[in-house]
Amino acid sequence: MYQVKTYNAIAQAGLDQFTKEYQINQTDNADAYLIRSVNLHNQNFPKSLKVIARAGAGFNNIPLDQATQKGVAVFNTPGSNANAVKELILSLLVACSRNLFAAAAYSAQNSGADISLRTEHDKTKFKGTELTGKTLAVIGVGHVGSLVANAASALGMNVIGYDPYLSSDAAWHISTTITRARTLDAALKDADYVTVHVPKNEETTGLIGKDQLDVMKPGAHLFNYSRGGIVDNKAAVAALDDNKLATYMTDFGEDILLNRNDVIVTPHIGGSTDEAEVNGATQGANTIRTYLETGNIQNSVNLPNLTVPFAAPYRITIIHKNIPNMVGQIATALANAGINIESMSNAARKDVAYTMIDLDNLKNEEDNKLIDTLGNIDAVYRVRVLKH
């Protein structure tokens, strides 16, 4: 029986993915956490914890180093809220181009018998532009960015995509009408609108700062619906003050952005739709089941991807440091125990590696002894024995 602990409100459709072999929120000593936005940085993980799945794309709320050292696999659910973010960006593009926020605020403050005459006189203040023929730069064309790029192209916009990490698989999702820029500056320099869709890490923090804003043409509009900190807010405000930037819209508020007519801050609603919550919960639950039941890894944020059909009666999975002779030590330990290896697979991700060994025979009474033997090898974080 597997134990799952949830944090935040997890969509019932996701919880329904668990079979009768799983119990939900029956103990704190869980095998798996299914979470959304809860901050786990100050939590001590129980020894029983093997996997954390976040129903969403971001994972800044999870202490990855601690998880890895305790042998806990961490997953996110990339793409689960991509359509929600795409639709919000499209709505903001229209709202921005047509000055809808300012127009609505004006109408909300004006009433009376002469409202029609005053509105007819004042409406020229809110005259907008059309998106067709305008240029949109999409920085990051992964799950969200590719959808935004394709949708904007369908609206008649000229779309330029920039993503130095674009994989061949992701490239298939991008329309042939989209121009691929070779540098960030090349993507920015002619754009009327710029939208950012990259993960947050050391390389992308401050990705759009003073130098990049200086490259953009005067009157451009900037959107950050990726992560806070990817756009340097101080630099953005300075560009607004200097009339280099016309509008800045973001999902990540900060005091410096408040009470400005040229800034729109939304309360972190990019992926907040009923459908996105169902998608994330469902994907997260299925990821937990796959990992616990087969050891296969896909979309982990701290371990390498490794997926092998589980056809043998037994499987041993080992999370360990990526150092020389680890596979040799593991194989030797199995040989000394008189255990024949049917197949072995190994993958590495920076300093951590993952090894899966399929066995055709393993006596039940040897399980604990084998786990202890392998677990006592230096640089091994966790050993699991799975039965098919």
Automatic annotation (TrEMBL):
Protein name according to UniProt: D-3-phosphoglycerate dehydrogenase
Role description: Catalyzes the reversible oxidation of 3-phospho-D-glycerate to 3-phosphonooxypyruvate, the first step of the phosphorylated L-serine biosynthesis pathway. Also catalyzes the reversible oxidation of 2-hydroxyglutarate to 2-oxoglutarate.
Coiled coil feature spans: none
Entry-linked InterPro entries: ACT-like_dom_sf (IPR045865), ACT_dom (IPR002912), D-isomer_2_OHA_DH_cat_dom (IPR006139), D-isomer_DH_CS1 (IPR029752), D-isomer_DH_NAD-bd (IPR006140), NAD(P)-bd_dom_sf (IPR036291)
Gene Ontology molecular function: any one: NAD binding
The keyword Transmembrane helix appears for this protein: no
Catalytic activity: (R)-2-hydroxyglutarate + NAD(+) = 2-oxoglutarate + NADH + H(+); (2R)-3-phosphoglycerate + NAD(+) = 3-phosphooxypyruvate + NADH + H(+)
The entry's keywords: NAD, Oxidoreductase
Pathway assigned to this chain's UniProt record: Amino-acid biosynthesis; L-serine biosynthesis; L-serine from 3-phospho-D-glycerate: step 1/3
Family: Belongs to the D-isomer specific 2-hydroxyacid dehydrogenase family.
EC number: 1.1.1.399, 1.1.1.95
